[in-house]
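quick one, two chains, predict together pls
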Amino acid sequence: MTRGQTGRWARFWDRLRRSLTTAWPVVAALAIIVGFQVINPFFLSYQGFITLVYAMSYFLIAACGLTFVIVMGSFDFSVVSVLKLAALLCVLYIDRLGLWVIPAALLVSTGLGVINGLLFARFNVPSFMATLGVSVVVEGVALYLSRGFLHIMYDETFRALATSFIARLPAIFFWGMGVWMISTILAVFTPFGRRVYAIGGNPIGAGLSGINVERYRIYVFALSSFCAGLAGVLYMAQLGGGSMQIGADAAIPLFASVVAGGTALTGGVGGPHRTLFGVIIITWIQAGMLMLALGRDVQMVTFGLIALGMSAATIDRRRMRIVK
Amino acid sequence: MQGLRTHPVILAVVVLAIAFSSLYPERFLTLLNVSTMLKQFVTLTLFALGPSMVVVTGSLDLSFVGIWMLGGILVWLFVPILGTFSILVVLLLGGATGLLIGVLQVKAKVPSFILTLSLLVTYWGLTAKLSGGYPRLVRGYDFVTAPLIPYVPTALLWSIPLILAAVFIMKRTKVGTYLYAIGSNEEGARLAGIDVDRYKILAFTLSGLFTGIGSMILFQHLGGATPVELNLNTVVWPLVAIVLGGTPLVGGSGGPQRTLLGALTFAVVDRGLILSLLHPQAVQLLLGLLLIVAIVVGSRGLKGVAIT
């Protein structure tokens, strides 16, 4: 009885999923653009477009890193915390280190990713819990360093990294697209990418076919945190300051944008090329809601429900007998 | 001796308590401090009791803070209509949330951590929306925490039947046995004829109900109002209590009775560190490291188990 029911559910979901996951991100992205354009004609003007580019670029960089982790079938909760820490390191030490602060911040971020990976791959801590733990520590460090104050970035060279205009578009747009392209090439055309997909598809099978699963897991978590760090550096360059009070709610839109693009939580399916559409959907909904003067509370409800719905819609139920 | 080997945390809590008491007895060994520790113990226990049943089955339930926050605001909304009885809304919310999570997890097969995390953020947004952005104080529930015995928080007395019920369910009933079986080997439990789906839904519902009842007590215990901003620590600390107590995250052993131990340990460490006059943010950091150590220790012996 139960098994029959599960089977029916699984078949139903599967048919829905197969027809929808490929087409829906593109359709949804277009629908959102048209919808908000109708409500607010300012949306697609040059100024409106620049606002959207600013909103989505750093987000895209962080989401590309997270996509690799999710393709591998794991989860990285610490992306937002690492992003914050990298941004904070830049603003705190730019006077002392000059532009060397950027490699320093990236190194710290990558190191945190290696710790995530080690906890997960070496010590067998479930990735969600390991990254949650690291994120609590990172938040603690960030709070300790910032003393809870608002910090302002005065260095113009640093800020030019994101805010100088090339071909009438801010530089951060090219950073975002560059990272997106490199991630796509890395995921689709390199042995590294193939192996990450293989581990996501079946970790035991991947191990048996000669992939050093443990090492690749560490690589991927390092990559995710590196992207988060880069996003943090550019975020700081774009905003020119800020407090460290952006909360845990930022993790949900980030996660939602990866699954909305069609990368399944089960792993092995999707990839950074799809995440672009997810990021467009999420950040443009966010921007559109801001234009309609809908507050953060309504946004949280929306993104919570989107994250829920999209993870349910993309999950590959045939492969999952046991869900924890 | 057997007890010490299976519960190394007993040793740790005794050593820590002795260490703190001998380092600064004038601050640590006061009635006020013991009372504060008990208060924190109650808070952690009431939050962690329900979720620890879910952790036994190998899943996670992070929605407890959401139930408490949204419940508090619903009480404020319903007080003009229902009077004192509006506190029961929290119980209903808890049970309904648990049932919803269980059904979604089992039927739609969304991994529980992401499911409950999304729901937590949704509830948080709803709390902020419904409250209009400010914590809302509700008066009239003072009787819940009216002092009965000096230095013993009344919430502790309320929570005793709740704790006993949780331990009884997990240790003395068929449901408990099945939940442990599901946690240690879900496929095996299925093959043994247990209706795994139904019992998993039951586990989430129980977790929601216990959180609901706990939140009814916590509502007054934590000041008669709930915050509209989520503090990550409120979510993480009860998890630390569960893991420190010795319930492994993959499930199959541990349970509510261990969570009591974890909550006690956490309360001792937290108070000990705060009274050590370290910088408060340094204390925060040390507690984060404690979480990492706890989860590493809690996940030992899992070689060969497929972990994502």
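Chain B touches chain A through 65 residues (CB under 8 Å).
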